[in-house]
Amino acid sequence: MTKQNVVVSDAEAEIMNMAISVAVSNSSIFTAVAEKPPVGPPGCISISRKRFLNLKNLDSINGAERINSWVDSMRASSPTHLKSSSFLKEDQSSWILQHPSALDMFEQIIDASKGKQIVMFMDYDGTLSPIVEDPDRAFMSDAMRKTVKKVARCFPTAIVSGRCRDKVYKFVRLAELYYAGSHGMDIKGPAKGSKYKKGSQGVLCQPASEFLPMIDEVYKLLVEKTKSTPGAKVENNKFCLSVHFRCVDEKKWSELALQVRSVLKEYPKLRLTQGRKVLEIRPTIKWDKGKALEFLLESLGYANCTDVFPVYIGDDRTDEDAFKILRERGQGFGILVSKTPKETTATYSLQEPAEVMDFLQRLVEWKRQSIRAHSML
Question: What does the pLDDT look like over 228-244, one tens digit per residue?
């Protein structure tokens, strides 16, 4: 595969001079304003400034209100506080009608993919492995690993995770996959065993390399700041940081929010987003799991093809960027992994990793039957 050129337009001057006004409401502290993407040189992938939260501009807002809004957002993302979101009061059966089970709709999905190349994209935590209290123990079952290995033999397959790419690889241990770590900011092709690989199998894309020293610096500061909060865990995912609060007493969430803010207010080049029981700190570039999906499709030669069928399976808020891209492309489907109704742009749903494995096994069996039928013609 030819290594792509990636540029960050006006990264130094533009980001430093940006002024973003943030309106904090009761809904979420993560609301921000969209920026126009800059134009890069021909032949390059141009990465614009990402929507982000300028924490310094929050100084004019009452401190208690600011932190309360932050904690409200933390509650809304927590599976144990489902009633805190008005959307989740929607009738379960009504939601299932809008996002039916991918298992129940398997034949319809296959019919839609006929004559097209299926490309598989999957999140890791909560999709291929269960959500656990200790993120270092999010192990994949042997049965799931065997299933994913079979999937990769049938289709180009990528793991797209907020985790550090090396850490995800240690969990999965399959050299034939594409790995996109740090929300797609660190992408590497298969080391072996994939008939879809092209060219060099080294690192394909690292659009946020210039941020590495800053990420390491903030990591050390956050570890020091949060060590007084029992249960808090700061994870260095190379190009982004995760502050896990799954094991933090809810009474301590405000304290944790203050600690994180006290560090980030000095780093306007970093932005804050949120996942399931985790605060994510990322560089302010326009790059996410949706961009990673597009990059991988282009790298595989499917950028402008009408005969490609991407399937993205994920459980987290950050996976919505990929679901949205599939909607915009009008190709393939997004599948949300969730036991409860959530606002999503995914087309279908699965309840848990066990159902994900069932879906993948059925996909492999369908492919094998198709190959056998074709060979008999």
Answer: 999 999 999 999 999 99
Cα angle for residues 69, 74, 80 (degrees, 5° grid): 130
Q: Indicate which residue of 59, 72, 91, 123 is catalytic.
A: 123
Task: Please state, in angstroms and rounded to a whole number, the distance separating the CA atoms of residues 170 and 160.
Answer: 14
d(CA 373, CA 144): 27
- Rounded to the nearest angstrom, the gap between the alpha carbon of residue 350 and the centroid of all alpha carbons in its chain is 17
In this prediction the pTM is: 0.75
pLDDT in tens, 254-307: 899 899 999 999 999 999 888 888 899 999 999 999 999 999 999 999 988 999
What is the C-alpha to C-alpha distance for residues 263 and 83, in angstroms, rounded to an integer? 31
- Catalytic, 216? Answer no
Of residues 205, 193, 92, 213, the one with CA closest to residue 150: 193
**Which amino acid would we find at residue 355?**
E
Strand order in the sheet with 308-314: 203-205, 186-188, 178-181, 157-160, 117-122, 308-314, 333-337, 348-350
Q: How far is 255 from 259, CA to CA, in rounded Å?
A: 6
Looking at 66-70, 103-107, 298-302, 356-360, which range is the least confident one?
A: 66-70
- For residue 245, which phi and psi values (nearest 5 degrees)? -125, 20
Q: What pLDDT shows up at residue 321?
A: 96
DSSP 3-state assignment of 349?
Answer: strand
Alpha helix segments (H runs only) across 52-164: 63-76, 92-98, 106-113, 142-154
Cα–Cα nearest to 157, from 177, 185, 128: 177
